[in-house]
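Contributing: when you submit paired examples, paste them exactly as shown. First protein:
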Amino acid sequence: MSHARSEYEDFKRIAPDAYDLVLALGQLAAKAGLDKQLLELVKLRASQINGCAFCVQHHVLLSERIGVPVDKLHLVAVWREAPIFSPRERAALAWAEALTCLPDGVGDEVYAEASGEFSETELTYLTSAVASINVWNRFGAAFRWTPAKRPVATAAAAF
């Protein structure tokens, strides 16, 4: 793959109003009380599907900082085969995949599973989170934003 066409920071500079709107949309679900770890799994999965390296790395690093178990991060791409995910996480991941891959729409089974795990309000805000990450993915993939480097851990002084 070739180098970045522009960078994340360029988006903030070039279109600050669009940046602010997408950022605000992405924050609504957490403000409404949805679990931040669950939201990060959803955002990571959508970013994997959309092939946005910047967003995949961003959400892996953020997930680690907020305590998402490493095994879940490694297995989110194959969540259907991994028993580590709760029914609520499975419903959220299926919902995210259905909304990210819309050619077939959202099937009744996926809707029933999601609405069985989430209230009407929660499902609406979960949908806003999926919509937001899909918007971010479009920018990141289109402009090939460079993924962040993992921060270097500093060794604690042995004194």
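Second protein:
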Amino acid sequence: MTDGPRATRGKPRKAAIAAWIGSALEYYDFFIYGTAAALVFNKIFFPTSDPATGTLLALASFGVGYLARPIGAFVLGHIGDAFGRKRVLVFTVLLMGISTVLVGCLPTYERIGLAAPALLVALRLLQGFSAAGEQAGANSMSLEHAPAHRRAYFTSFTLSGTQAGQILATAVFLPIAALPEDQLVAWGWRVPFWLSGIVVIAGLVIRSKLDETPVFVEEVAETKREKTPLLPLFRDHWAGVLRVIVASVIAAVSTIFTVYALSYAVNTVGLAKTPILWVGVLANVVALAAIPLWARLSDRIGRKPVFIGGSAGCAVLMFAYLWSLSTGSWVLIFTAGIALFGVVYSATNGIWPAFYGEMFPAKVRLSGMAVGTQIGFALAGFSPSIAEAIGGGRDGWISVALFTAGLCALNIIAVASARETHEVPTAELGLRRTPTTV
């Protein structure tokens, strides 16, 4: 199979744009939950606890969604590699949208007691199950449509879409957070979740028009596809799965920034909600431009130097950002926040969609990425609650920054041990090394 003609027939731009829009819609749903957990869920679903414990429980409910992600990865990874990428992408946007709308319809603890947080957690688990297949499916779709020499650039659109979803989620909450406290708690927090009904319709329309990837179509035509892709994945590519698991803990930078830091700034330091939300909006706007630029650089000089540089930068700048929050200086906060999340973290986000997928051959690619990333992301999902537990007060940010830096170090070790793949032809990805070589 030759990369050039095949990629041309696969319409890489169409696949990349569809991945961008679909991920933006899906992760709007996923991240409005994190914002609500940081700002209001401690009052609505966990009101009998003292304020600190209520915040910890609300952030833990955010992390619960990540528990379902490994399960979703196994199920949706199998479906994607056995029956096609398109089916996974249609299913994930439908499940995410419906479960998010239902969160906005939940009665509060005051009305139905413990059943309220129980239902909240159940719907969060459905969100996590859906998210497990979203990025792996979109990344596989984009990578397999892309020209070999531009794989990172085209797959990076999935993560640009994720950042756009965060922008949309935060932007929707800006006027909501400005409501009087009684209106915010009574009904305002529900509006962003109800808007997900639009997400369901738009996502289904966009993804139903996608073409299946040429790689998968060729496997079906030549009967190469695996009926049980998880068996050869763990038999022949366990090292790649393990490496992706360890590398994926870098996602903790995102959850610490978007959830813990928001809670720390508002609930511990006492900063105003609206300006701190704007930090996230502006950082994500910068990331929209930075992610494809970092990806293009990795197409030229390699995945590993860009990825490792981004991880090391995150370890350093997390100290600067959390310290800036403790000072209350908005100039420092905006500068450090945009540098950390808008610029440096984008280097990792621009690379991993291609780099992780390039570790596996097509027959197990979606499964390998889904299982590896979602187990690693599970730790990232609980990072805000871990940070809340180890932080403890205004000066607790140092412990949180050290915790985050340790996770960045794990990522650097995993990435440094991997094979450089940016010049490997698409048809040869995942095939050159022996199955048991790490």
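If you have annotations for the second protein, write them as plain sentences, like these:
The chain has two domains: 12-221, 229-417.
DSSP finds 20 helices and no strands in the chain.
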